[in-house]
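Hi L.,

You mentioned the student needs an example of a multi-chain input paired with its predicted structure. This one should do, with 800 residues in total across all chains.
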Amino acid sequence: MTPADFRLSARARSMKASEIRELLKLVGRPSMISFAGGIPDPGLFNVALFQDAWREAFSGPSIAREALQYSTTEGYPPLRQWLADHMTSLGVPAEADNILITSGSQQGLDLIGKLLLDKGSAVATHRPTYLGALQAFSAFEPTFSSIDAPQPVGDAAARLLYLVPDFANPTGLTMSRAARRAALEQAQILNAVIVEDAAYTALRYDGETVPPIAALDAATAGSIEGTRTLYCGTFSKTLSPGLRVGWISGPKALIRKLAMLKQGADLHTASFNQMVMHQVAMAGFDTQVERIRAVYRTRRDAMLAALDRHAPLGVRWKRPEGGMFIWLELPEHIDAANLLKQAIRRDIAFVPGGAFFPDGSGRNTLRLSFSLSDEAQIEVGIFKLCELIGQQGLARAVSV
Amino acid sequence: MTPADFRLSARARSMKASEIRELLKLVGRPSMISFAGGIPDPGLFNVALFQDAWREAFSGPSIAREALQYSTTEGYPPLRQWLADHMTSLGVPAEADNILITSGSQQGLDLIGKLLLDKGSAVATHRPTYLGALQAFSAFEPTFSSIDAPQPVGDAAARLLYLVPDFANPTGLTMSRAARRAALEQAQILNAVIVEDAAYTALRYDGETVPPIAALDAATAGSIEGTRTLYCGTFSKTLSPGLRVGWISGPKALIRKLAMLKQGADLHTASFNQMVMHQVAMAGFDTQVERIRAVYRTRRDAMLAALDRHAPLGVRWKRPEGGMFIWLELPEHIDAANLLKQAIRRDIAFVPGGAFFPDGSGRNTLRLSFSLSDEAQIEVGIFKLCELIGQQGLARAVSV
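Structure written out for the whole complex:
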């Protein structure tokens, strides 16, 4: 039998295999210089801290009852409290009951889609935006609109504004305080919920910190309970993605609803992983963030410098203040998906930008990640990539 | 703001807080004898085996790149291979690509709902059935029908037959080989997919093993690729629920689709947990299953004997051949939800049966779990519970 022989849901029938998925499989090839995934460098993980946490967690008397047993859907209480304090330090005064632990922030997006979206509901996003958010929300068959386009009001208004305000995936851009305020006002007018995807927020390399939208919202509302922002956080870009621990912070009334949806989705996030992540976060979150910031800053600078040196005319990019990505706009006649096929033959990988646009535009764009490669690899990789772009018929660079 | 102030999805508006959730919170009270949750006894977990597996996993050179890093959505290859062999041993000849690792079998149900259900699609289940399946599928707004009622054919036919063939939650009943064949034939006529929830399958205490529906399907079709059964397995009832590792076994074409849906839902199941579970399963799955079977068998027998001794007239139950549950039918005038309130005051917990019926019937039924209590607690708990039932106006027991 083939899937066509089964009666699948409309969402399953419309799914296409993701280009990114196929790309990520190439990362394992040793000769490959990968600028593809938004993947932390495993060489930077603080393995010793995890070893200590594991040793502690499984030498305690309660290992069987705590680490190996079912636990509550909302999450491990000490981790919820640590995250409440963390959110408070970011300007979002939160209590443990404002936090739902999720299986990575990807699950946060899935649960929020379940909470808010009926078939045909509108979701407003930046264009381009995080592919995984489009995937998560698509399961609930919404329509997508651009947050920069005029928004209808009333029933047709977007229920959900999805934003990656800091060092966005894929563009690397950061929303100014004024842009965050404007988004919040727009959400109030539309009676929409803002989903603030903060996956990269800890990774600022320079410039001034801009408060989370959730903080601006709480300051205006007087408390987190009056807000309309669901903040999705994760340890994946700082401590470890493999443990799959993220969180949603928001008003208790919505967190309770999200917990009920999570119960149906996976009962709870792995107990042991939450205990370990709590230990590691307590022992070394700030130190780890400082450490990886220093390394990624150097790599960002190396990639920007290499682009300055090698990029042919007509290739444009902006300097990101943090995160993992530099976004390239190529001359319109270049198709980045075709370019990728040639690049892979030269052992270079990146993500063609078209995947990040819900409407299939952006064919002449691509995303470069600088997180996985050292400075020498970045120099070689960018040189080879730019040479290849130049061979498509160009000559000198413009940085905008 | 309250949730009523937001524009929530229809599914979120119709959600009600689960009685079971509230009940499970009581399990922690030390004086409580809980017959409520379908929870393994943590005293039976093989802690030493997990300690060995953890030590091994995090002393290897690849800990950072494997255990702490992102991994593939489909799952850790050695675990997929172990499970393929396990399925083959159950009569379902499978390869690694027939297996998708899920975050517990609960996630399997969520993903299958996403794969198959549009709003208004029909789902046929036994009545009563596993509450968590009703929760998972409800997110996709199907209609529920009884598998025992006449089924419409064509577009209105159920897309999904949900079955717990072995020692079902909540009834403890096992489907005969003939009943399994009949369900398979029905699915073929309806062009439906069978979801075989095998959460309790390893926990058989006596009687003859009946082949999984997936095995009967594969035998008829000649290979797993021709089947229409998605088998949902889990380590939660045998090795550990806290690590959240389950699997779906099925034809590759559907497994590939499910992997795409899983990518949008949580990217992948925690890498480290899969490595540990693979180690533990290799080192001691069979031994662990034998060990817990012996203990749970004793507890089942103790509960049956206590019911025989103490149950008042008009209370009916059937002897389960495995699993964790005995299902009681009380005289029609007794409301089990009211009974629970009285029982909790006497430190006894169980789950009122109404929660397991999609149509709200079954008010005079309840589910007893014998997995968490020792024989002395079972004797005391059943005595007190039966006394309480007797006080609702009854006299002697009938076992059917």
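You could point out the following to them. Residues 47-284 of chain B form a domain with the Aspartate Aminotransferase; domain 2 fold (CATH 3.40.640.10). DSSP finds 13 helices and twelve strands in chain B.

Best wishes,
N.
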